[in-house]
Write a structure and sequence with these properties.
mainly beta, 132 residues, globular, seven-stranded mixed beta sheet
Length: 132
C-alpha cells in the first residue's frame, strides 16, 4: 500500500511559478513510475509529467513531459524524503486545474506514462489557479 499526499498548490498570476509536492508513505520502495495529472472542470484528466523512481532500477530518473508543459515544468525526486516535486514556471491560465499525484505499483511495462489506468494509487489533489 502506498499513500500519497500532495501539497503546494495555490493561486498565481500568469507568468508566475508554483511548486507542488507529493510525499509517498507506506510501501514506497516498490514504486515504479510516479506521475502528475491534472483535471480542469469539464475536461478529462490529462498527464502532465512522470518520473521513474527507485523501484525502477533500469530506468531510474527518466522523466517524461506532456508537450504542453515542456520547457516550463520540471519534475524531480528526493528519495530520502520519498517526495517528488513538480516545479511549474511560466504558468498560463490554461494550466489551471486540480493536480493529482499518482504512483504505479506494480510496474506495467509497455504502457504509456500518461495512461491514468497504469497508476494504482492517487492523492487527493491540490488546486492550481493561474489568473491572467
Amino acid at each position: 500500500q502506498v499513500q500519497l499526499l500532495e501539497s503546494g498548490g495555490g493561486s498565481v498570476q500568469a507568468g508566475g511559478s508554483l511548486r507542488v509536492s507529493c510525499e509517498a508513505s507506506g510501501n514506497s520502495v516498490s514504486r515504479n513510475r510516479m506521475g502528475w495529472f491534472r483535471q480542469a472542470p469539464g475536461k478529462e484528466r490529462e498527464g502532465v509529467a512522470a518520473i521513474y523512481t527507485r523501484g525502477a532500477t533500469l530506468s531510474y530518473g527518466r522523466v517524461y513531459y506532456d508537450d504542453s508543459v515542456k520547457g516550463r515544468f520540471t519534475l524531480s525526486q528526493d528519495n530520502a524524503k520519498n517526495t517528488v516535486y513538480l516545479q511549474m514556471d511560466s504558468l498560463k491560465p490554461e494550466d489551471t486545474a486540480m493536480y493529482y499525484c499518482a504512483a504505479e505499483d506494480p510496474w506495467k511495462p509497455g504502457r504509456p506514462w500518461n495512461d491514468p489506468r497504469i497508476y494504482d494509487y492517487w492523492g487527493q489533489g491540490t488546486q492550481v489557479t493561474v489568473s491572467s
